[in-house]
């Protein structure tokens, strides 16, 4: 698919990677607008096609007392307000078949979580909305297996699919990115590298996922060098107080320098 098919997407002719970026979860309107304003400013300056990311609810939590959301429609309306305020497309993840039609009323891209990407009914429901479907590679799946997830979208009459690699389980509490999978998956659909989730350290005894945010630039650089079509980065102005995935998020203050470096690398790669 072409980026031009996404409403409100900008800078599509800049020959840059595109960016899915925002907080892990929508915690409130003010925080979402604050983060979006900053990222829009940066991506406009660097001519990066940008999609604002925020989960309207978090269903796959380690503990029953973990934050799951502020209310489905409330969070979806905030995503809609971000889109209207800053004239950018938005993406959110869905977890149940009934989520597809609901979320599609508010956002431009529906994301299938990695744990759920083999769930045929969920993938088909997302595809039938006509929205772009971002398929996150299961931590337990080979890159080659993702062709079947993409085919489910296409068989549902929708050619707008992306694949996102968010790392592969390496033991019980670590993730790795096998960059050999990038060209493989790009043969099936545009491929995104989820930098911050690839640095998660799940299954901690505390029930709170850990992470290695100090390695964000290392992984992101490798993705750009290996021609990923897009990058996925979760960011927050106070990761330590974020209600979800704070341990592996990038501080918002560090985003512009990171993206500037990555754009420079992409320009070099484009000239090879």
UniProtKB/TrEMBL annotation:
Q: Does the entry feature the keyword Acetylation, yes or no?
A: no
Using the record's annotation, list all stretches that form the DAHP synthetase I/KDSA domain.
9-266
Cellular location(s)? Cytoplasm
The primary location reported for this protein is: cytoplasm
**What EC number(s) is this enzyme filed under?**
2.5.1.55
Question: InterPro entries, from UniProt?
Answer: Aldolase_TIM (IPR013785), DAHP1/KDSA (IPR006218), KDO8P_synthase (IPR006269)
Q: Does the keyword Ligase apply?
A: no
Concerning SUPFAM superfamilies, the annotation shows: Aldolase
Write down any Gene Ontology CC term. Answer: cytoplasm
Task: Name the family the entry cites.
Answer: Belongs to the KdsA family.
| The protein's name in its UniProt record | 3-deoxy-8-phosphooctulonate synthase
Source species, please? Aestuariibaculum marinum
